[in-house]
Amino acid sequence: MSPFQINLNPLKEPLGFIKIFEWIVSILTFATCGCFKGRTEVLVNCPPQVTDNKTITASFGYPFRLNQESFQTSLNSQ
């Protein structure tokens, strides 16, 4: 029986090295993006009355499903 051997010859070629590099980068990308949370706000000005400004807020996180998020409006006191 022959001992276990690893053939690293494909890694010596540029395409083999790039494939390994792609795997490492994709794992690191998803690992750092897994707990991302954010919020976006839009200020809506309603003329002619300046006091009727509203702020629309949307909170989101990974996985990004903005089409399923709800928007809340609140009166902006300026």
Automatic annotation (TrEMBL):
GO cellular component term of the entry, any: synaptic vesicle membrane
Family annotation (PANTHER family): SYNAPTOPHYSIN, SYNAPTOPHYSIN-LIKE PROTEIN 1
Protein name: Uncharacterized protein
Natural source organism: Oryctolagus cuniculus
Phylogenetic placement of the source organism: Eukaryota, Metazoa, Chordata, Craniata, Vertebrata
